[in-house]
Amino acid sequence: MRYLPILLIVFLTSLQGFSQSEDEQQIKSIYEVAMTKGKAYDWLNYLSNQIGGRLSGSIQAELAVAYTKSLLDSMGIDRVWLQPVMVPKWVRGTPEFAYVETTPGLTTDLPICALGGSVATPLGGIKAPIVEVKGIEELASLGKDELAGKIVFYNRPMEPTLISTFDAYSGCVDQRYSGAMEAAKYGAVGVIVRSMNLRLDDLPHTGAMGYGNSAISSRIPAAAISTNGAEFLSTTLKLSPNAKFYFKQNCKTYDDVASFNVIGEIRGSTYPNEIMVVGGHLDSWDLGDGSHDDGAGCVQSMEVLRLLKETGYRPKRTLRVVLFMNEENGLRGGKKYAEVSKGKNENHVFALESDSGGFSPRGFSFDCSDTILEKAKSWGPLFEPYLIHSFVRGYSGADINPLKDTGMVLVGLRPDSQRYFDHHHAENDTFEHVNKRELELGAAAMTSLVYLFDKYGMVETP
């Protein structure tokens, strides 16, 4: 009888080894299919080059809904449907124009673009003295005496010493979103914001801005200026403090319009009432074609379902792909999905979002309990052959965050971020800047994590 514990340990160890080998083989199969028979790159090619930028409320967004639904229909999964959602409709209008004038008649053109949600300038544009600040907090010290009737130039750059470019972005994006609303309180007539970009180039980067509850009559126009333009303008103001800035933009906000989240589902074989979501956002800004932000995340998410089917794995839990509409300027799709799901008392246990570009995957960020995070880290050896090494606590994604509930696992794919903000919200967010292999590696990493959580569950056990 004294040999029984030893035999039991040997037996359990052999089972553990078998499971590890089984997981290694399944993940290897996922990667092999993704790298040799992948569909994500071709799907993205069509989405980007045949449809283009997919701003909420646009005809391109409608075409993207129809196209991605047709792809999911063709997979032969259990269910595909469209979830209605009302979204904002903001139109850029004719190209923006700007210059700095150092003396009457002596001007230099500068590249700008309207921020998403901004009001237009008057028909003839705005020309006024310009005041440079490094952030919103400086406005109060200047006051109305210095700011009334002027254009505020926000020129706080992304912090270059932060290795995480998303941290650098978070550190200065407030001037883009709230800069106009705050400057208007001091009588400013417009704002120009340095683009959220670590690289010096001539491409202005758009992005969402808001006016809060301020009266429509008090809203002032807001535009982004390229990083090179910001450097030039800052130097010019040091040499010519009385320089004036002119800009003209014709953007307009219309009434909300109907759109859709696109949803596909493989029903779980064992726990069908436990739902796992994988997704990205289908809308994009209009300057480029939205390949990295977030066409890549959409095609990777659809590929997760296809790769599991192609490798013969039947999920235990219900697996949904959700392509969310209107992440960029309203988050209506993510909020609607969560609202409908909670109204139906659906049991979401896991959600994974890809919204950080189609670059080489480095790992995942987790919003979950410490126990589950340690469980995910224990799978590290399975990912090491594929150079996935980072399993950290952190933000998951804007669209899945409204689903957050006690005990739920939220995850964000974390690709290498060093080049992401070179393209983010700019006209060079285009298909040619997506590497096929990197995109496929991201899809395979996502699929592998979904497989492991589905197989072993979200129960908080060591």
Report on the architecture of this protein:
- The structure is a single chain.
- This protein is of the alpha/beta class.
- It has two domains: 24-89 and 255-456, 3-Layer(aba) Sandwich (Aminopeptidase), CATH 3.40.630.10; 93-250, Glucose Oxidase, domain 1.
- It is 37% helix and 24% strand.
- The protein is built from 13 helices and 16 strands.
- The chain has helices at residues 4-37, 40-51, 59-74, 138-147, 165-170, 174-184, 227-239, 291-310, 332-343, 370-377, 380-383, 420-423, 436-456; strands at 79-91, 97-103, 106-109, 112-114, 126-133, 151-154, 190-194, 222-225, 244-248, 252-266, 271-281, 317-324, 347-353, 361-367, 390-393, 409-415.
- Strands 1-10-12-11-13-16-14-15 form an eight-stranded mixed sheet, with helices on both faces. The protein has an eight-stranded mixed sheet with strand order 3-2-9-5-6-7-8-4.
- Helix 4 (138-147) links the parallel strand 5 and strand 6 (151-154).
- Helix 1 (4-37) runs antiparallel to helix 13 and helix 2 (40-51) runs antiparallel to helix 8 (291-310).
- The two termini are 29 Å apart.
